[in-house]
Amino acid sequence: MYGMDIYLAVRQAVTHEGLSHREAARRFNKDPRTIKKMMSFSVPPGYRRDKPVMRRVLKGFEGVIDQILADDLKSPVKQRHSAMRIYERLRDEHGYKGSYTPVKQYVRRYKVSFKEMFVPLAHAPGHAQVDFGEAIAIIGGVKQKIHFYCLDLPQSDGCFVKAYPAETTEAFLDGHVSAMAFFSGVPLSVLYDNTRIAVAKILGDGKRLKTRAFMALQSHYLFEDKFGRPGKGNDKGNVEGLVKLTKAKFLTPIPRASSYEELNARLEQSCLRRQVDHVRGSKGTIGERMLADLSALMPLPAVPFEPCDTRTAKVSSTSLVRYRDNDYSVPVRFGHRDVIVKGFVDTVVICIGNDVIARHVRSYATADSIMEPLHYLPLIERKLNALDQAAPLQAWELPVAFGMLRRLMEVRMGKPGKREYVQVLQLLGVFTQSDVHEAVKQALSLGVISFDAIKQLVLCRVEKRPARLDLSVYPYLPRPSVGATRAADYAALTSGLISSERRAA
User: Distance (Å, rounded) from C-alpha 320 to C-alpha 377?
Assistant: First the structure.
């Protein structure tokens, strides 16, 4: 191929100087046919084939390759044939004698012909897309995988992002509640992939059997649901882009936070700061375009939605309730009862009917046991031999004064002293630990080592009164009157005593 400078010189010589093609060929040392071609095109046309390339080496094998690639469409993506694997099969199973390169080129052209094309979309205000992403963060000094919920408003590119320890039903629900509170409204529709949190089963004709938790969420907020094609993430390209942006911008470098609350506060600020950005091809900032989205949103319901995973369970003989492979304690008086477990993102609440009987910090470990010592003290009071080996009490860190109190009670009273110590511990279920601790220290200093004394000292502390019976503190009690003693009163007593002695004689 010749450069544009040669083209220009040849064309000027022939056109302006009147040179023939043969004369121009002699001057520029080119073939006359080349001069003719240069005069036919104003710019170099590039290399052109008159006929398609004949790849005789693949003749007879194209059908085999086509069948392998067609079968691949029914296989998982990670188990589809590479060009090298197809070449190996042709060589080993079909007697192919050629090289790898023709096979590679044929497979490449085949795959390009099947690449999907997309139609640019315009989005109306008030609609949303939702997805989850994964990233790495350091929370409380521990490097761990986090799952972050993303809600995108495609019309304006307004966004909301919140991180969770796991992609669970309660995280999915909590993300919606938090996002709608962030935007102060409910989207007209929300587009999802076919996550099992929302879709229990994909039916025919594009219908879905939705999960109970998702239907409860939808019934509360009354938004329309939409679902993408199975296995096609590009149906919700805006929120897919938000997931990538969150990892690349909001979570890079790897974030460090003392808790998820701190990390989520930062993510919310990142979403707010992004509202001043301009997106290529859009007029105005994200925040300016969000005004149309916000005005189209439906109002929030008057009553907030409870974002929890609700399950039924039964209390075991060790007063434990299992939720997501972890055990949580309840007071022993509820043993063997049927309960309702509400799993929130950070809390597990156990109820009987509408009454909450236990509340624990959520554990994301495996086969963990979360036991509240106070739940077991009434049982330990009856089974005192279990006091030293009771698992719920092993990790219970109490002030030193409690240990001193127990030793003195057991030395002075023996087994009853152990029981009274357990009764003192039960005061922690009624009063704050600081109040009970101060009462224990005061009892030790006064030498009044008993449950009744400590309970009285705690009450005095809570009621802000001195630890003694001072009548001025109780104005409602009747006042005693003490009169002066007379000698006649003693004489009357003496005469009565003499008369009784004479009768006895």
Answer: 14
